[in-house]
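2024-03-11 09:14:02 DEBUG pipeline.ingest accepted 1 chain
2024-03-11 09:14:02 DEBUG pipeline.ingest length=210
2024-03-11 09:14:03 DEBUG pipeline.predict start
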Amino acid sequence: MNSLSYLVIGLCALQVNMEYSLVPSIGKAIMQAAQEVADGKLNDHFPLVVWQAGSGTQRNMNANEVIANRAAEILGHKHGDKFVHPNDHVNRLQPSNDTFPTVMHIVVAIEINSRLIPKLKQLHTSLKSKAIKPFLTNEFSDIVKIGCTHSQDATPLTLGQEFSGYTTQGSIKNSLKDETMARLHLCCTLNFIKDDLQYFNIISRIYKED
């Protein structure tokens, strides 16, 4: 997911660069090479372990080198001749101190939406089925237990009542997800300068389509 998000950022920046000074033929070759990376066709060219510097420079430059060399080959040039340059072309205006934090925020946002939230909803539904409801009974409504306050026995309650508290907590947590996601999206924008609105329009469109 991390590598794919890095590719998305790179492709968005590439589209913006092509509208300004990047030669279109080189831009298209880079785009094709990046797609091959996304499809897993060049996995053998990524030997790095997970332990890296905080800014992700190794991963970033590994991707830049692989994409640049493959793009050069697509254009009929030899591997390693720097016809497509890993910094000047592939990584143009994308310092890893900015892009790597943005990638992490994108990954977290995707994982929250695609994996965490569905599981939380499933958990909440399960808890709700056990919670006590007015004028209704369930498997926990007739199970009485001793309440506990500060490690001391307290007022008796049913297990269904106890699960009502868990259900309410789940509802509160679900309601906080929108605020969390808004802050994640804000963090992405803080890593770039104000003039990058065009870049953000592109990346927002890509993730909305997904």
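2024-03-11 09:14:41 DEBUG pipeline.report The CA atoms of residues 94 and 168 lie 44 Å apart.
2024-03-11 09:14:41 DEBUG pipeline.predict end
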